[in-house]
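Homework help board

Subject: predicted structure for assignment chain

Our instructor gave us this sequence and asked us to write out the predicted structure in token form, then describe one feature. I got the tokens but I'm not sure how to describe them. Can anyone check?
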Amino acid sequence: MAKKVMLTGDRPTGRLHIGHYVGSLRRRVELQSDPSYDRIFIMIADAQALTDNADNPDKLRENVLEVTLDYLAAGIDPDKVNIFIQSAVPELTELAFYFMNLTTVSRVQRNPTVKTEIQMRNFEANIPLGFFCYPVSQAADITLFHGTVVPVGEDQKPMIELTNEIVRRFNATYGEVLNEASILLPDNKACMRLPGTDGKAKMSKSLGNCIYLSDTQEEVEKKIKSMYTDPTHLRVSDPGHLEANAVFTYLDAFCQDEHFAKYWPEYKNLDELKEHYTRGGLGDMKCKMFLNKIMQEMLEPIRERRKYWEQHIPEVYQILERGTAAAREVGQQTIREVREAMRINYLEDQQLQQSQSQKYSQTL
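My token output:
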């Protein structure tokens, strides 16, 4: 059976929110116990985050720890998963440099995710080169560890496609060294792109529309109570609309039938609740408080685990050291294979040195 290796990660630009959790983090926790995976690597992508935070490295310095705490709080087991810091694995930079010769500026420009993120950051007139090249860097992140599965959100599909194009180009040019990767999307459609609490399409720290994994019980309840619903649903008797209604999108993402038996036995399942809401006679606040109970149940063990790890910070850094050492070991082996395939391993190639020595000794 072919080896399965998972590679995924997050930029340390702030605490992780429930969009990260349902988009990829929850799946990582589930799959870490799957015996079909040989290795799992989770990268804290601080070098990638520097591409648009170069003038504020202290922000990343603090958030490397915040993201690690969120990983451990969410249930990532450091005995099953290697959590590592991107900038501490220099082989990633080397491989990205080689990959830059295997794609073009126009190909990166066509990437819809890059286009969107350039617009979001108002980089249209002045794009930092490091930011523009980050899709190539991401390809190196995946292939250095021979990643075969990448659990990410739907917006990252163009990145995986570019990664596989680069892999095919490398293997066609230098020989079969690297392998292609497949994307693992959330199995719940609502989880693919969870909106912000304000109903906007993207949950974003800068927009202030996130529920963080580390939020207190009171903070979560306050955010849910203010969540965007249906602006035309002015009276309880009015028919409600589900489209673009953040409360029901979140219920689609988090609600299970057993939650009704536990918290709202008036309904058997979400379909019954939706039917009542759309015909009228059901207030938004009742739906919000039901959602709040579901969210609190999910977040409470995460909050408790985070409290534990906050009291064991030296151990957290030891976890990062072990994970980074494991990542470097794999990365160094891959780079040796890459250099050999590209025939740039001059100092290690004893056969090359001997043949050149013989060539020039014969001219004497």
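Reply (TA_rk): Your tokens look well-formed. For the description, you could write something like this. The beta strands are 5-10, 39-44, 82-85, 149-151, 182-184. That's the kind of observation they're looking for.
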